[in-house]
């Protein structure tokens, strides 16, 4: 039992250290040797837990997707209208991307490895597309606003925000002037909603 | 003279082949050996023209930045109002990202190598920030619209679009349903402008 706990702890240390390396340098730019060094765990112990780099990437991707799914379920259960839920979901995801390096690494790895729709975004973006279609049908969007164009816009905004958060995490301090990503996204939503919502917040 | 022309042609073939590799797989995921194979040029000839991978990346970055600067100067000389010029510039840049793999590779390489503001975006995004501030001062933006928030939004939208264009260039056909990137961005602008512009287009 103690042995199992120790193994779980070692795996967590490895996943966290690997996430930082993958997030900063991408899949191709990261080696098991560097992860081993960053985690302070011998390369023998690393390969005991994760036979190859792809196995570690897979663990990170799984954890990052699970975190997004959890946020999605929480927001979906909130009972907000579909436009409000969309805003709320993206803010929660921005918070996640900013605070959790595993989630951020998952978003990057999924993009680098799939080449189609990034596997992290496809956990939640189809639901946003559906919610916005419902918002349109419920008269929450102004006449003429195409819900699918708005959904695409949301996907692009989150992508831009993700890359900005990453650049800021590893770059010099200058970007800190933007403030937290969530507040930045709140300001962007206020700007977008006054154009698309029937009843925009003040 | 003929010899110089031949050298220039070889360099162009190499830059184009390398851009495709860098755009698809990033700096770390690309080797001189693969570029040599893709270009159909011996590795001896490759290193004669570009001593190392970084030299090729530098040439691509320079060419991609020059292309963005050219578009910027053309739009700046058009005499449009600052809000119209911003829209026009982003559409021209989207066209460039979609049609020119060297520009797209430059945007990716700059981001991977700098970790601060991506070096391709900083060719033109500061000008957008300035134009939008001027648009605000000229009363072209609705009261309450913060021009710097709009500028950040523009940067994020282009980033998302860039990544989408790249995924589509190398992924399966499915994404083609979105239509050309320029048309997609036009639809997004219509949606954004109705919220921010004093006098949005119909």
UniProtKB/TrEMBL annotation, chains A, B:
It holds the Pfam family TetR_N. The keyword Transcription applies. Residues 8-68 form the HTH tetR-type domain. It comes from Kitasatospora gansuensis. The keyword Ion transport does not apply. InterPro entries: Homeodomain-like_sf, HTH-type_TetR-like_transc_reg, HTH_TetR, Tet_transcr_reg_TetR-rel_C_sf. GO terms for molecular function: DNA-binding transcription factor activity; transcription cis-regulatory region binding. Coiled coil: none annotated. This is AcrR family transcriptional regulator. Keywords: DNA-binding, Transcription, Transcription regulation. Residues 31-50 bind DNA.
């Amino acid at each position: 039992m103690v042995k199992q706990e120790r193994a779980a702890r070692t795996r967590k240390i490895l996943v966290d250290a690997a996430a930082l390396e993958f997030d900063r340098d991408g899949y191709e730019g990261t080696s098991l040797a560097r992860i081993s060094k960053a985690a302070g765990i011998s390369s023998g112990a690393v390969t005991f837990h994760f036979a190859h780099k792809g196995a570690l990437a897979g663990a990170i991707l799984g954890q990052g997707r699970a975190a997004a799914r959890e946020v999605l379920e929480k927001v979906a259960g909130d009972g907000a209208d579909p436009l409000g839920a969309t805003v709320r979901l993206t803010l929660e995801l921005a918070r996640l991307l900013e605070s959790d390096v595993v989630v951020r690494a998952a978003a990057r790895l999924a993009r680098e490895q799939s080449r189609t729709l990034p596997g992290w975004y496809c956990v939640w973006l189809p639901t946003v597309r559906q919610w916005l279609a419902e918002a349109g049908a419920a008269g929450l969007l102004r006449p003429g606003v195409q819900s699918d164009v708005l959904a695409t816009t949301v996907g692009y905004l989150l992508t831009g925000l993700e890359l900005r958060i990453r650049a800021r995490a590893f770059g010099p301090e200058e970007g800190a002037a933007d403030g937290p990503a969530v507040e930045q996204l709140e300001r962007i939503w206020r700007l977008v909603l006054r154009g698309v919502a029937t009843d925009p917040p003040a």
